[in-house]
Write a structure and sequence with these properties.
285 residues; alpha/beta; Rossmann fold; Pantoate--beta-alanine Ligase, Chain: A,domain 2; 6-stranded parallel β-sheet; 3-stranded antiparallel β-sheet; 10 helices; binds pantoate
Length: 285
């Protein structure tokens, strides 16, 4: 008989006691931080976590600090019961659902701010976003104190920001990146895809198709880097996207790439709005 049990915890003290119990049993712990509205992409992170640790904690917390005024904080989907069912299906061990009061008690005045990797790409149009992410992820890492924590490569810049402050602050937790999960038509899975209208959903896969084609073209014609990028950006605009950025950058530092060399670890990054929905994606070149 399956005696697996999913424990739901909202209180930090209770979570700490549960984790201490696991530690006493010499169990390793993986944390998968999420904002809920779980889809197959998140669930693949749970599978990934289970391959690397004895017990898996999934946190669900819609972090107000990473949304700017006017962004979709209020509209952000919060289907907690469905999320818990999905996690049960994946034999997750703990769901941690801290409240706003636990996360940011009255008088909370600390900010984790990372420079450099936060400046380009999404950092330009969402200037305080990565401080919000870094602050909440630091708190989640301190609360759970896992051996490893898993983040999806769809939010590639976020993954680099997290790796950077974990290294800078000597946080003894290994950060693992997990590959992007896509629909059959190539669209990267995202909780925000559910905002897309039927027509927008049909157009959305063009984002990934354009990136793939551009990556191929760049490999063929390295010297035409900037004109190839411009043509791809124009193609997206023509199809109805409002392009925020389409750029090629170094995959480790996010430094801009003007000329691309044979052995360079380059990556293409795109963010574009379709109607009111902001989509991001990235591919290796
Ligand atoms: O990627 C996300 O869902 C969020 O940015 C994270 C890492 C859970 C922090 O709120």
């Amino acid at each position: 008989m399956d005696d697996h049990r999913l424990t739901i915890v909202s209180n930090i003290q209770v979570l700490r006691e549960e984790i201490a119990d696991l530690r006493a049993q010499k169990k390793t712990v993986a944390l998968v931080p999420t904002m809920g509205a779980l889809h197959e992409g998140h669930l693949s992170l749970i599978d990934f976590a289970k391959e690397h640790a004895d017990q898996v904690v999934c946190s669900i917390y819609v972090n107000p600090k990473q949304f700017a005024p006017g962004e979709d904080l209020d509209a952000y989907p919060r289907p907690l019961i469905d999320d818990i069912r999905a996690l049960e299906g994946k034999l997750t061990d703990f769901v941690f659902t801290p409240t706003d009061d636990e996360m940011y008690p009255d008088g909370f005045s600390t900010n984790i701010s990372v420079s450099g990797v936060t400046s380009p790409l999404c950092g330009k149009s969402r200037p305080d976003h990565f401080d919000g992410v870094a602050t909440v992820v630091t708190k989640l890492l301190m609360m759970v104190q896992p051996d490893i924590a898993i983040f999806g490569e769809k939010d590639y810049q976020q993954l680099l920001v997290i790796r950077r402050f974990v290294r800078d602050l000597n946080i003894p937790i290994e950060i693992l990146g997990a590959p992007i999960v896509r629909s059959d038509d190539g669209l990267a899975l995202s909780s925000r895809n559910q905002y897309l209208s039927e027509d927008e959903r049909k157009t959305a896969p063009l984002l990934h198709q354009t990136l793939l084609q551009l990556a191929e073209d760049i490999k063929e014609e390295r010297s035409k880097l900037s004109s190839l990028i411009e043509a791809s950006s124009n193609k997206l605009t023509k199809a109805g996207f409002e392009v925020d950025y389409l750029e090629i950058r170094d995959a480790k530092s996010l430094a801009p790439i003007i000329e691309i060399y044979e052995d360079q670890t380059a990556r293409l990054f795109v963010a574009a709005k379709l109607g009111t929905t902001r989509l991001i994606d990235n591919v290796a070149v």
